[in-house]
Amino acid sequence: MSQSWEVIQEGLFHYPLDPGQKLALIANRCTGCGKAFFPRRSLCPHCFEEGVLEDISLDHRGIIYASTVVHIPSPAGIKAPYAYGYVQIPKNQIRIFALFTGADPFTFKPGQEVELVVEPVSENHQGQDIIGYKFKPIT
Predict the structure, then answer these.
(1) For the residues of the chain, what is the DSSP string, one character each?
(2) pTM of the full predicted structure?
(3) What is the mean pLDDT of residues 108-123?
(4) Is 31 a domain residue?
């Protein structure tokens, strides 16, 4: 039986999850300077060392650093209005770019706590869901 979805980009997160596995974005950290990166990199842009990056799982909770609402549908098929912005992951000392979900797009504000989810972003030409990571408000 084939799956009815595809991942927006391989290597961003594990899906489907194994029993007991928690949803997490896959990033990497430079063992030389300690900086973390998402999506993963092959070369540290801070110290320019190759081969010193280790994979890490990011915490599933964060705080909105900045957000905006888009009023025009995206070429990728995301219906307007939709919200996106930067989420600060304090535990991993990293800020990532993400779509927001689970509430009115106009309600997402800096300082708001959010958590990671995986859900459809759009559909491919065969009608399969294309899934990606998003953040939703913590209730």
Answers:
(1) ---SEEESSTTSB--SPPTTPPP-BEEEEETTT--EESS--SB-TTT--BS-EEEEEPPSEEEEEEEEEE-S--TTSPPSSEEEEEEEEGGGTEEEEEEE-SS-GGG--TT-EEEEEEEEEEE-TTS-EEEEEEEEE--
(2) 0.90
(3) 95
(4) no
